[in-house]
């Protein structure tokens, strides 16, 4: 397996640290003019999502982690695994467990495309696109005279996600939702 | 790896203009003081022996010369000029150090180096203050010894602490197995970089003086309170190391010993030994006049002038775009 020396360190590098795959977030190079150089590095552990800070003496190296991000279409869930397929035309399928899917489960819609992070060839995490469009399956009826400035109410979407929506939203409408904040963005005009 | 090339500069037009003004200021400063501007080779036959300076090798083929190095500093050729009777001299040089890239580092940078015949380190510090404060409009620097600076910020005495206690202190940054092959100087550099430097010169500029003799480089050494200390100084402003100066070592025998010691350290660290620049040694043997010299990072001075957080803000093209 390849390794990276301190002079190759940079943000985005995927490395193994204490046996776990990590992504390098920041790399600060320090060196007194005539003195020994060190790299102060921030890394996110991809298994735990914890951020680590480590220091390396110039010339040390870290093993590269076999981590790849791939676009995949969500197919279906069999209850135990969530199945995805590469969008590169290879039809290759991957099964992600509940740990890999994590909170993204509430944004999973069949045939939508997600970023699946593979570690040693197996799904490690699934990231939704920033915005998804989902249908409202349950919400209190809208009230007459409500305007866009009015209050809000919870609405349950087809994936099970619950988001706060304006009072005028009714069952059957398709909403655009920001997956990073879990917030309603707007109604999507049905074609 | 698949990044598409970016052609635009990283410095704003304002920063480029400040750079030009800074060059004019520096030349005016030395012209007024009758210090001669010189140019020495950027491409030399020899590298340096310093353990922690990695030169960039060149592939020269001319006049029987093969190989060569981009210079890490113009120190040796400038001292040869001094030995030849140049009198006080300065140079604005491009210098090169391999592997150095960060918020404050680029492998190629601009160095202002000057030598004052007959001055000691105190007199040269006063001149550095004139130059820097005249340009930045800052307060004149305080002076704090290396020992005081470490004691105040790290809480131990760098002259007295045992190697074991020093390593234990460093465990806040490094694992035991990483510390195993660090020397005493490496550990002190670690403490300097992480515990001391960030606090230096925040309220007003500060000269750190009287370095441990083991970090003397090319400075002369004398005893103070029973400890050998180097007549070496560095200026810090806003936590940024700006210059490194010496009351210069003129003794060729002592110089030879230090080169040999450097090469032994290089060997121990698994780095190639570097041939000693015998032309420089011959100049020392002929006689270097009593002088002090200092090297100042012009890109960093410009960072302070324009309030830049990263060196690329004052470079037209850092190495990734060069």
TrEMBL record, chain A:
The UniProt record lists the keyword Hydrolase: no
Major place of residence: cytoplasm
Gene Ontology biological process terms from the UniProt entry: peptide biosynthetic process
InterPro entries: Elong-fact-P_C (IPR015365), NA-bd_OB-fold (IPR012340), Rib_uL2_dom2 (IPR014722), Transl_elong_fac_P/YeiP (IPR020599), Transl_elong_KOW-like (IPR013185), Transl_elong_P/YeiP_cen (IPR001059), Transl_elong_P/YeiP_CS (IPR013852), Transl_elongation_fac_P (IPR011768)
Keyword Oxidoreductase carried by entry: no
Alphabetical UniProt keywords: Cytoplasm, Elongation factor, Hydroxylation, Protein biosynthesis
Domain Translation elongation factor P/YeiP central: 69-124
Subcellular location: Cytoplasm
UniProt cross-references to SMART domains, sorted A to Z: EFP (SM01185), Elong-fact-P_C (SM00841)
HAMAP family, per the entry: EF_P
UniProt family annotation: Belongs to the elongation factor P family.
Name assigned to this protein: Elongation factor P
Organism: Marinobacter litoralis
Originating gene: efp
TrEMBL record, chain B:
Keywords: ATP-binding, Elongation factor, Ligase, Nucleotide-binding, Protein biosynthesis
Residue intervals of the Aminoacyl-transfer RNA synthetases class-II family profile domain: 24-318
PROSITE patterns: AA_TRNA_LIGASE_II (PS50862)
Catalyzed chemical reaction(s): D-beta-lysine + L-lysyl-[protein] + ATP = N(6)-((3R)-3,6-diaminohexanoyl)-L-lysyl-[protein] + AMP + diphosphate + H(+)
GO biological process, one term: lysyl-tRNA aminoacylation
Gene Ontology CC annotations of this record: cytosol
Enzyme Commission designation: 6.3.1.-
MF term (GO), any: tRNA binding
Pfam families on file: tRNA-synt_2
PANTHER family linked to this entry: ELONGATION FACTOR P--(R)-BETA-LYSINE LIGASE (PTHR42918:SF6), LYSYL-TRNA SYNTHETASE (PTHR42918)
Description of how the protein assembles with itself and partners: Homodimer.
Protein name per the record: Elongation factor P--(R)-beta-lysine ligase
Source organism of the structure: Marinobacter litoralis
Encoding gene, per UniProt annotation: epmA
């Amino acid at each position: 397996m390849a390794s990276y020396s301190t002079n190759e360190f940079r943000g985005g590098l995927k490395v193994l640290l204490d046996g776990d795959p990590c992504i390098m977030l920041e790399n600060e190079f320090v060196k007194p003019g005539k003195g020994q150089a060190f790299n102060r590095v921030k890394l996110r552990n991809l298994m735990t999502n914890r951020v680590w800070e480590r220091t390396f003496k110039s010339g040390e190296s870290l093993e590269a982690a076999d981590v790849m991000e791939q676009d995949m279409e969500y197919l279906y869930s069999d209850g135990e695994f969530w199945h995805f397929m590469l969008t590169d035309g290879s039809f290759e399928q991957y099964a992600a467990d509940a740990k890999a899917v994590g909170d993204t489960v509430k944004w999973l819609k069949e045939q939508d495309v997600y970023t699946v992070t593979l570690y040693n060839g197996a799904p490690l995490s699934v990231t939704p696109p920033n915005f998804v469009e989902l249908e409202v399956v349950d919400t209190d009826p809208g009230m007459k005279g409500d305007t866009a400035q009015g209050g809000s109410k919870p609405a349950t979407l087809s994936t099970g996600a619950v988001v706060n929506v304006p009072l005028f939203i009714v069952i059957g409408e398709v909403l655009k939702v920001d997956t990073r904040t879990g917030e309603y963005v707007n109604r999507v005009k049905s074609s | 790896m698949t990044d598409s090339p970016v052609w635009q500069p990283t410095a704003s037009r304002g920063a480029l203009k400040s750079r030009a003004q800074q060059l004019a200021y520096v030349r005016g400063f030395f012209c007024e003081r009758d210090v001669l501007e010189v140019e020495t080779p950027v491409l030399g036959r020899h590298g340096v022996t310093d353990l922690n300076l990695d030169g960039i090798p060149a592939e020269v083929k001319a006049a029987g010369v093969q190989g060569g190095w981009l210079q890490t500093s113009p120190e040796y050729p400038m001292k040869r000029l001094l030995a030849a009777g140049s009198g006080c001299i300065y140079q604005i040089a491009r210098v090169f150090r391999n592997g150095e890239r960060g918020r404050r580092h680029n492998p190629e940078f601009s160095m202002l180096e000057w030598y004052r015949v007959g001055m000691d380190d105190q007199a040269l510090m006063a001149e550095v203050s004139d130059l820097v404060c005249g340009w930045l409009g800052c307060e004149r620097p305080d002076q704090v010894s290396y020992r005081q600076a470490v004691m105040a910020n790290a809480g131990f005495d760098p002259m007295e602490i045992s190697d074991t206690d020093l390593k234990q202190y460093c465990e806040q940054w490094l694992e035991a197995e990483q510390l195993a092959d660090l020397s005493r100087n490496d550990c002190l550099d670690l403490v300097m970089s992480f515990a001391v430097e960030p606090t230096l010169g925040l309220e007003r500029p500060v000269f750190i003086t009287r370095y441990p003799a083991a970090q003397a480089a090319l400075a002369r050494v004398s005893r103070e309170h029973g400890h050998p200390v180097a007549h070496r100084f560095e200026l810090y402003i806003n936590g940024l190391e700006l210059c490194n100066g010496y009351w210069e070592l003129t003794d060729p025998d002592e110089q030879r010993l230090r080169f040999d010691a450097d090469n032994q350290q290089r060997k121990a660290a698994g780095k190639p030994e570097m041939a000693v620049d015998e032309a420089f040694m011959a100049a020392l043997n002929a006689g270097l006049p009593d002088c002090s010299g200092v090297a100042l990072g012009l890109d960093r001075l410009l960072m302070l002038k324009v309030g830049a957080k990263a060196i690329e803000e004052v470079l037209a093209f850092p190495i990734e775009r060069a």
